[in-house]
Specification:
Number of helices: 11
CATH class: Alpha Beta
Number of strands: 13
Largest sheet: 6 strands, mixed
Strand order of the largest sheet: 6-5-4-1-12-13
Number of domains: 1
CATH topology: Purple Acid Phosphatase, chain A, domain 2
CATH architecture: 4-Layer Sandwich
CATH superfamily: Metallo-dependent phosphatases
Strand content: 15-25%
Order of helices and strands: HHEEEHEHHEHHEEEHEEEHEEHH
């Protein structure tokens, strides 16, 4: 009985016993796939956290560095200024003329090495020194006591495209300081003979962001504004050097009753005369008569009856010659605004005669024999393409067998 009872009892099985080998293999595969997906998800989350932490660290480091840099720069400017140890000459009295220096497209950090043209910080310092010589000569000839410097943007080169990035001498933070150093010398050079007024607007190449903006908030996020404000602070309180205003895209100033409109030029279409008249038309609707428009952007001189386009300080580069088949020379414009001659008080006139505007292009391509302004070359030495570094090799470690 006992043995029969045991024979009729159902057999006991352990978990998993009795399954086919194929079912067991499928379950193991599903488990393996689930574990792989889980491990990949964990790794992706770890990578995301690592990237976010790294991005925050880099952002915090940059912000801390910029804050410290700005604080030290402001402290240095407040302590020393740009005229410490410099004896300023007396501003001449009288004068029937005012000179306007049209300053645009300086592209300080661009480096050009062509058979037809060469450009770097030293050449820029030479060409501005030559420009100051021409301004002084014209001022003496016309009896001018004041010079208006109209800064029309693109004082630094863009670094958004690979071709531009490879042609830049150094990064734009260091180039800003070099630009300030050279422009400081240029303004002090002019100050030896004239009273100065400085105005400024933004260009398109010197913007910090990649997107081109037209609003004041976005357009003034520009190295052009930074250079202007550093110069303004450095010359604060200096007799005879007045920084009179900076705007994002357009600016008006008046000389001897004549109203001048400053643009960079990237808002002007192919038909220049038509575009200029359209832009001045919106001011006419506001009751403002624009007598003359100043702009640059295309790196080619063109002086007309109602507008003047500036060339660049650079001249031709690889892109303009090879990509556009377009050659140009380094040049800047100078305009002489002369007061109308005194009229006989007995003469009957409907209105007094307006001042005349004479414009001329100053060729700055050849700077043979021109001594460059002295500037701080320590910042230029950081550039991997700096000429001084290319010609002064140094041995870091040498093994001799």
């Amino acid at each position: 009985m006992s043995s029969a009872k045991h024979r009729h009892q159902p057999a006991r099985h352990l978990p998993g016993r009795g399954q086919t080998p194929a079912a067991n293999t499928d379950q193991d595969r599903e488990l393996l796939q689930f574990n792989v997906r889980l491990a990949k998800a964990r790794q992706a989350q770890a990578d995301t956290n690592r990237i976010e932490r790294k991005a925050f660290r880099e952002h915090a480091r940059i912000e801390n560095a910029v804050t410290a840099y700005t604080r030290e720069l402001c402290s240095l400017l407040d302590e020393r200024g740009f005229t410490q140890g410099v004896t300023l000459s007396r501003i001449p009295e009288g004068g029937d003329s005012v000179l306007i220096v049209q300053l645009s497209d300086l592209h300080f950090n661009e480096r050009v090495e062509l058979p037809s043209n060469r450009y770097d910080f030293t050449v820029a310092a030479q060409r501005l020194a030559k420009l100051a010589q021409r301004v002084k000569q014209l001022g003496q000839s016309y009896g001018a006591r004041k010079v208006v410097v109209a800064c029309l943007g693109d004082f630094l080169n863009s670094d958004r495209r690979l071709d531009e990035l490879l042609s830049n001498s150094t990064n734009r933070s260091r180039a800003t300081l070099l630009a300030v150093d050279i422009l400081r010398a240029f303004l002090l050079d002019l100050r030896e003979q004239f009273e100065l007024e400085v105005y400024g607007i933004t260009g398109n190449e010197s913007r910090v962001n990649k997107e081109l903006g037209w609003s004041d908030e976005l357009a003034t996020d520009s190295y052009d504004l930074m250079i202007y404000e550093i110069l303004k602070r450095g010359f604060a309180g200096t007799e005879g050097i007045n920084f009179c205003g900076f705007r994002a895209n357009e600016l008006l100033f008046e000389v001897m009753g004549r109203t001048f409109l400053c643009l960079h030029g990237h808002q002007i279409g192919a038909n220049v005369q038509k575009s200029v008249q359209e832009i001045t038309g919106k001011y006419a609707a506001q009751g403002i008569t624009v007598d003359y428009t100043l702009f640059g952007h295309l790196h080619a001189s063109a002086i007309g009856d109602y507008h003047a386009r500036n060339a660049s300080l650079v001249g031709s580069n690889a892109y303009s010659e090879a990509g556009l088949n377009f050659c140009s020379k380094a040049a800047q414009n100078i305009h002489i605004v002369t007061a109308a001659p005194a009229t006989d008080p007995k003469a009957k006139q409907a209105k007094p005669a307006a001042a005349t505007i004479d414009g001329m292009k100053v060729d700055l391509q050849d700077v043979t024999g021109i001594e460059p302004y002295v500037f701080n070359r320590e910042w230029e030495a950081y550039s991997p393409k700096s000429e001084s570094k290319l010609h002064t090799p140094s041995v870091v470690y040498q093994v001799v067998v």
